[in-house]
Amino acid sequence: MNIKEKVAKAIDAPRDVFLGESKVTIFEDREILIENYKTMLEYDDNFMRIKLKHKDIAITGKNFVLDEMTDESVIIRGIVSGVEFL
Known about the structure:
By secondary structure, this protein is mainly β. It has one domain (21-85): Immunoglobulin-like (Sandwich). Helices cover 14% and strands 55% of the residues. The chain has 2 helices and 6 strands; from the N terminus they run ααββββββ.
């Protein structure tokens, strides 16, 4: 554990805010919010691969729509059948 991680733990700070780590929030099987992502690597209506700070995330399903995409977050809607960290 590095010094930033120790400080974040000591003051009970959220890792995504204090350390800039990516945060993935899944709402049932219909929506995914990804915060602090780097870039979209692949996208179609059945598969997405997104570069996070330390890993990639692969999302499978169907009828995907990019509902919102900013420099800091992306919201994906559709029917999610799988999520894998690569």
